[in-house]
Specification:
Layout lengths: L20 H25 L11 H14 L7 H12 L3 H15 L13 H5 L10 E8 L4 H12 L8 E8 L2 H10 L3 E6 L13 H11 L7 H15 L4 E6 L3 H8 L5 E4 L3 H16 L2 H11 L23 H7 L1 H5 L18 H13 L3 E5 L2 H13 L5 E5 L4 H10 L2 E5 L3 E2 L4 E2 L4 H13 L6 E7 L6 E3 L1 H11 L4 E5 L10 H4 L3 H12 L2 H14 L26 H9 L12 E6 L1 H4 L7 E7 L2 H16 L6 H38 L3 H4 L1 E2 L2 H4 L17 H10 L2 E3 L3 E5 L7 H13 L5 E2 L3 E5 L6 H23 L3 H15 L24 E2 H7 L6 E4 L1 H9 L5 E2 L4 E3 L14 H9 L4 E3 L7 E4 L2
Parallel strand pairs: 1-2, 1-3, 3-4, 4-5, 7-8, 7-11, 11-13, 13-14
Antiparallel strand pairs: 6-15, 8-21, 9-10, 12-17, 14-15, 16-18, 18-20, 19-20, 22-26, 23-26, 24-25
């Protein structure tokens, strides 16, 4: 039986338009089909006698809801629902079913290209005969307050331009108002282009749900522009903020020559009303441009050509596999196309990753466009390598880098290789759950001001942070960069967005990505009003002076040093102030590394580096090229590169839909856990209040998206940290089972549920763009089965068994030894006592000297530390979980670190010898 549309999904009542339309719409069509099927069956059982004309209450409730929703879709559209209502009121239930079922299948995603039957014969006649392989279909939003007759005439004019050779097919969605255009873009991901016509009105006549109305009020402000041209420009800007990948076109009646000069940035093209053919061709050309995947196409074409292979790759063209007596099953398993596409050739339409000039160069340009970067590069051996490339390109031996100690191990190894002076920043701890959050902005500012006071600010080169963290904590990226640039105008930023590649394709997520934040700052810095804000802040700060010290863009050696007049008291004022940088001095030098394969479509190890660096050509192009050469294989996997190209194509067309869906599905899991009487007895999904301390939040919602897009938008605008709603940290302490055991013995071995990360008392679940509603239902079902298992086990325990279980639960729900902050580097690896940075490279290679290291057990180390000896780690020690180095070369080992290590219950610790203990420098 189909599930009824749930009121908790903000489905509204009657004809209200909800925000979670994709699920409400699918459920409404499916349930309507179920209800009408029951009516048809009842009619059949009564011998063909039709029941009373009054429709059941459920059907009467769903029809106005679907009429409101389908206004924003071309297919099936509002007229389709109105015709369906007529058929139902006439009790023609078999005919009604023939209208409902194909739509329900298509809306549910079972047949994306199916054409539902049309109740309008004239509209049916407009359809072009589909080729054997159905054309890709999209919808075009027309924004104009026009009559039904004018709408039909416009549709007929455009459809008359269709040709059998067209690669794509489109249908029109017509809305009359500014607000309806925004709602359509929010709800309908099939829209890929917008045509603005001057006749649209400001406000919607539709009944909108509270969430949609709240979002519109927040997004659009209190009033919309009244002048037609201002309204057109404002709508174009707002549509671009929501979905920048969309093609925008303007159709004007007069004076387009004058408009063209002022509107070319907002619109792809401007037309007169009579230019139907040109508009039609432009719509198709815009889609074709995004659809192009040049490197995938090149690999595809190569695989279809006959070739003679005389290079060092026996597997190429399947040569060593297909006719093998012993490994022919390899080809049977992976398929012939994979083998035909394998090559080390860089010509014949293919390209070289190390020196791209053709299809691969074009693919990377398309990626830069999609992700909002100045330059994007493909990486075939993961974000670990991407991080090493960026660090090596920016940092020289002796440069100071501020970095989250909790970051991925690739950063620590990269900094060791670069010979940088590493200054670790501590994230706020979540001791109850045994993992860290993120680094507070105040801590970053304090570290920069400490270097300024020590006269070493000019040595600080880069800030490296993880956004978002493994556990889903997301920074306010724009604010972090803005305030840091107020202190250090030429600071370089590396944002490790390994788990955040999807975020650039949703309007709320996007604002906290590195590339979008950089573009926003670039726009702000170009605004004369921003310079006035900076000047006004300097006047308000008064005696504290310029946060950037001596005012040199590069940060001179005397910045903030002795005699600068900037002391600790003034530093405290700067810490409490939201700083505004000098736009004339600040340089935007921002790098983002993304594991495309982790959150978007790509083969394993497919990653990208995105760059927005104003000084790239002058300061970093050559060193970046050398770093890229250092770490990139001369034999890259072409299938990974082709998948990156296709992953980019996918998110430019359907990224918004997929990201919204993955977040909504995660919320549905959280709601199921919170509502089910047995699940909530053993499990709890941690929310914002659990994962982000109150001092870092202005809003106060536990799960903002659960309360609607408007609530999520508010939190993501105002709070210092937010939680990615697609990450679900499930607290399992009340089960009495630790996270590692729960992951392996219960989830994976028993039910095939795969998860990435656990802590002592939690398991991290992630939805992604490939997660289905069926997978969500299966997970909830498994959790219920496990809860029933725990319930049965508990009821069968003896008194001693109950006591043992209470002990296990107490251990998992009480606070363990606190997570250790970074202790310090040993004095011999530091430059001075005032600043914390250390030379990891020197410590790492000291361990290469004969007799410089010795192994000690934890007990022996504890005894020596208690006796006052300084014990220094010779290697990286990385337990999984938490998955970051608890010790790095040159770090002083403390009692707190040993206590934390002894409390860990994990199967995997890199850099630690279970038999010999810790490796320590003794020289």
């Amino acid at each position: 039986m189909a599930a009824r549309p749930n009121a908790d999904d903000d489905s509204g009542s009657g004809g209200e338009v909800p925000s979670s339309a994709w699920r409400v719409r699918a459920d409404a069509w499916e349930f309507l089909g179920y209800a009408v099927k029951q009516l048809a069956a009842a009619t059949s059982r009564s011998g063909g006698v039709r029941p009373p004309r009054e429709l059941p209450r459920d059907v009467r409730r769903l029809l106005p809801l679907l009429e409101s929703l389908e206004m924003y879709w071309a297919s099936p559209g509002q007229q389709y629902v109105m015709e369906l209502r007529r058929v139902l009121e006439a009790a023609e239930y078999p005919e009604a079913l023939s209208l409902i079922e194909p739509v329900a299948r298509r809306v549910a995603g079972h047949n994306q290209h199916a054409q539902e039957p049309s109740p309008d014969p004239e509209r049916e006649a407009d359809r072009v005969e589909e080729p054997a392989e159905a054309r890709k279909r999209f919808e075009v939003l027309v924004i104009d307050d026009i009559s039904s007759a004018d709408r039909e005439a416009l549709q007929a004019e455009l459809f008359s331009q269709r040709r059998p050779a067209d690669a794509f097919n489109y249908e029109l969605v017509c809305v009359p108002s500014f607000e309806d255009a925004i709602v359509a873009i929010l709800l309908n991901p099939d829209i890929q282009a917008c045509v603005l016509r001057p006749g649209f009105v400001p406000n919607s006549r539709q009944r909108l749900s509270r969430d949609v109305r709240s979002f519109l009020d927040r997004f659009l402000g209190k009033s919309l522009p009244q002048r037609p041209l201002d309204r057109i420009l404002s709508l174009a800007e707002k549509l671009g903020q929501l979905r920048p990948e969309l093609d925008l076109y303007l159709v004007a009646g007069v004076g387009i020559e004058e408009l063209a000069g002022s509107l070319t940035r907002q619109f792809r093209r401007i037309f007169r009303r009579q230019d139907g053919l040109e508009l039609h061709l432009s719509l198709l050309a815009g889609i074709a441009e995004r659809y192009e995947a040049p490197f995938f196409h090149a690999v595809q074409q190569y695989s279809r050509k006959p070739a003679g292979v005389f290079h060092a790759l026996p597997v190429s063209r399947g040569g060593s596999v297909i006719h093998s007596k012993w490994i022919n099953d390899l080809g049977e398993f992976y398929g012939l196309n994979l083998l035909l596409a394998e090559t080390s050739a860089t010509s014949g339409g293919l390209d070289s990753l190390l020196d791209p000039r053709g299809s691969l160069k074009q693919a990377q340009k398309l990626a830069a466009r999609a992700f909002g970067a100045q330059k994007s590069l493909f990486v075939t051996n993961g974000t670990s390598t991407a991080n090493k490339i960026v660090h090596q390109s920016i940092l020289a031996p002796g440069d100071v880098v501020l970095v989250d100690r909790n970051c991925h191990k690739s950063h620590h190894y990269a900094l060791m290789l670069a010979g940088a002076q590493v200054s670790y920043l501590d994230a706020y701890p979540l001791n109850d759950f045994s993992f860290y959050g993120a680094v507070p902005l105040e801590s970053i500012k304090r570290m920069l001001l400490d270097y300024r006071r020590a006269g070493r600010l000019h040595e600080v080169k880069m800030l490296a942070l993880t956004n978002c963290t493994f556990d889903g904590i997301v920074y306010d990226v724009e604010r972090v960069m803005e305030e840091c640039l107020a202190i250090k105008p030429d600071l370089v930023f590396l944002w490790d967005e390994a788990w955040f590649a999807f975020a650039g394709f949703h309007h709320i997520y996007r604002r906290r990505t590195a590339m979008a934040s950089t573009r926003s700052l670039e726009k702000s810095f170009a605004d004369p009003a921003y310079a006035r804000r900076h000047a006004e802040q300097l006047r308000e700060l008064g005696a504290a002076g310029d946060p950037a010290g001596g005012g040199q863009a590069g940060g001179g050696p005397d910045d903030g040093g002795p005699g600068s007049g900037v002391g600790p008291v003034n530093d405290e004022l700067l810490l409490k102030t939201r700083l505004v940088p000098d736009p004339a001095k600040a340089r935007l030098r921002v790098y983002s590394t993304q594991s495309t394969h982790k959150t978007l479509t790509s083969l394993r190890q497919g990653s990208m580096i995105h760059i927005h660096d104003q000084d790239f050509g002058q300061l970093n192009e050559e060193s970046f090229r050398e770093a890229y050469m250092t770490h990139t294989s001369t034999s890259p996997n072409y299938q990974i590169l082709a998948s990156l190209d296709m992953g980019r194509r996918q998110v430019e067309f359907e990224g918004y839909e997929l990201v919204q869906r993955q977040a909504d599905l995660a919320v549905s899991i959280a709601q199921a856990v919170a509502r089910h009487p047995l699940l909530k007895k053993y499990f709890r999904v941690l929310g914002t209040k659990d994962l982000i301390p109150a001092q870092y939040r202005e809003t106060n919602r536990q799960m903002p998206l659960r309360d609607g897009l408007a609530a999520m938008s508010e939190a993501w605008e105002r709070d210092e940290f937010v939680v990615d709603p697609s990450r679900l940290t499930l607290h399992i302490g009340l089960t009495g089972v630790d996270g590692d055991t729960f992951k392996h013995d219960y989830l994976m071995d028993k039910y095939g549920i795969q998860v990435n990360k656990t802590s002592r008392n939690s398991v991290l679940f992630m939805t992604n763009i490939g997660t289905s509603r069926s997978a969500v239902a299966y997970l909830v079902e498994v959790l219920v089965k496990l809860a029933e298992t725990f319930e049965d086990e508990q009821s069968g325990l003896s008194g001693l068994g109950q006591r043992a279980r209470r002990t296990r639960v107490a251990a998992l729900t009480s606070t363990p030894p606190p997570l250790p902050d970074f202790s310090r580097f040993a004095e011999r690896f530091r430059k001075d006592a005032e600043t914390p940075d250390g030379n990891m490279r020197a410590a790492y290679f000291e361990s290469y000297k004969a007799g410089s290291c010795e192994y000690f057990s934890a007990a022996e180390l504890a005894r020596r530390i208690a006796a006052g000896e300084e014990m220094v780690s010779a290697s990286f020690v990385t337990p999984y979980p938490p998955g970051f180095p608890v010790l790095v070369p040159g770090q002083v080992i403390t009692e707190e670190i040993l206590s934390f290590m002894s409390a860990l219950d994990t199967r995997e610790i890199h850099g630690f010898n279970a038999e010999l203990g810790f490796r320590v420098l003794t020289g």
